[in-house]
Design a protein that fits this description.
Elements lengths: L4 E7 L9 E6 L7 E10 L2 H9 L8 E2 L3 E9 L11 E5 L16 E5 L3 E3 L6 H5 L2 H11 L8 E4 L5 H12 L5 E6 L2 H9 L4 E4 L5 H8 L5 E6 L4 H8 L2 E10 L16 H8 L2 E5 L3 H4 L6 H19 L7 E6 L2 H13 L6 E5 L2 H5 L2
Parallel strand pairs: 9-10, 9-12, 10-11, 12-13, 13-14, 15-16
Antiparallel strand pairs: 1-2, 1-4, 3-5, 3-7, 3-16, 5-6, 6-8
Helix pairs in contact: 3-4, 3-10
Bound molecules: NADP nicotinamide-adenine-dinucleotide phosphate (NAP).
């Protein structure tokens, strides 16, 4: 029997920002193409504090957060064939719906579209499975179809949630010739290197554009994938693309990172001067502009979720969980504050939502 409500962690007032609070939300009935998941584990993403601050998907609070989930399917919509009740899965919940963190030990639930839900291999734990969906799909969207075998790629921030998975993907699945990355701390430099980067620069100390020019004999890299959301980084990385190369950015892109006002950015001019391609990938767009979630997008994202599970099981693209916290208002606020402050989180922070489910796997 599906309970009527659960106590999640989220925002109860429009644009209230951090700290999040306990919010009572309905346990949703899955639509025809959705599955209802009893959540075992989750992870933190910057998106969650940004939604609490800006509510840019215009939800009516209370809104429960926690979009990366792993757990057990407890109900399926009538058209669902990919997974069945009782399956252990990982999923990305709808970004304009409710997430699955719990504020109390009573358990938490989240619905996810069928194509954003993948069966979890038994050898992959709930915790690591829940560290993958949003960051893996972001890295996949940034690299898939934009990188050719033999390319030289620059991925700044290889110690970040998206960055470390992107470096692994580029080095181990895209057949890149050389993967260059960067970090601003010794531990993020080390994670980028462990993830397979051939060269890791220090973005706080090095003249990145000059170093990359030196490393590529003045040519520049074939592809940049910039998932840092930093205007400073955007301007720097645009200067590293070769003539006719591709500059791929995650999220809303240069000049728009505040989401409140548009700021001037030289990035498009820098890219135009090089005849480089500007590519914007943005998972949020699929949810803020539902028409973009067409058949091709569904196939692409579903394939990404399947590969996330397959590659993690094979040890090819593996999430680095640097911290694991219990699901609770205080713990989640502390983790999100650290993410917001920057420089204090390595890879991913995981959240154990249902210790019994996690212990029983
Ligand atoms: N719209 C979308 O589809 C979407 C999806 C996922 C994520 N995002 C956004 O993408 C961003 C990254 O997400 P995340 O989970 O990877 O965050 P994260 O774990 O906080 O990682 C941010 C990374 O950026 C690096 N960085 C910061 N300033 C830099 C600079 N000037 N040069 C080079 N690297 C720099 C940091 O490196 P150091 O700590 O080593 O300095 C860190 O590794 C967030 O803003 C998130 O909201 C958007």
């Amino acid at each position: 029997m599906r309970p009527e409500t659960f106590t999640g962690v989220g925002y109860a007032r429009d644009r209230a920002g951090l700290p999040l609070e306990a919010v009572e939300v309905p346990v949703p009935e899955p639509a025809a193409d959705q599955v209802l998941i009893r959540v075992a584990a989750s992870s933190l993403n910057p998106l969650e504090y940004k939604l609490a601050e800006l509510n840019f998907l215009c939800r009516t609070p209370p809104v429960a957060l926690g979009f990366d989930v792993s757990g057990v399917v407890v109900e399926t919509g009538r058209d669902v064939t990919r997974v069945a009740v009782g399956d252990e899965v990982a999923a990305m919940a709808d970004l304009n719906g409710d997430g699955g963190w719990s504020a109390t030990p009573g358990g938490a639930y989240a619905v996810a579209r069928e194509f954003l839900t993948a069966r979890k291999p038994p050898s992959l734990g709930f915790r690591d499975a829940a560290a993958l969906p949003m960051c893996f799909l972001s890295a996949f969207a940034g690299l898939y179809e934009h990188v050719q075998a033999g390319d030289v790629i620059y991925i700044p921030g290889g110690g970040g949630g998206v960055g470390h998975l992107a470096v692994q993907m580029a080095a181990r699945t895209c057949k890149a010739r050389t993967v260059i990355s960067s970090g601003g701390r010794p531990e993020s430099v080390a994670l980028a290197r462990d993830s397979g980067a051939d060269v890791v620069l220090d973005h706080r100390r090095d003249d990145v554009a000059a170093e990359i020019a030196r490393l590529t004999d003045g040519r520049g890299v074939d592809v940049v994938f910039d998932a840092t959301y930093s205007e400073q980084s955007f301007e720097e990385t645009a200067k590293t693309v070769r003539r006719g190369g591709s500059w791929v950015v995650l999220g809303v892109g240069p000049g728009r990172t505040t989401r409140v006002t548009e700021t001037p950015s030289p990035v498009k001019t820098i890219l135009d001067e090089r005849g480089a391609r500007y590519v914007n990938v943005n998972l949020l767009r699929y949810f803020s502009e539902p028409a973009t979630l067409d058949g091709a997008a569904r196939v692409f994202l579903g394939h990404g979720m399947d590969l996330a599970m397959e590659w993690a099981e094979r040890g090819v693209v593996v999430p680095h969980v640097s911290r694991t916290v219990d699901s609770g208002v205080e713990e989640i606020n502390a983790g999100l504050r650290a993410l917001k402050a920057g420089g204090g989180v390595l890879g991913k922070i995981a959240v154990i939502v249902d210790p019994e489910l996690v212990a029983g796997e």
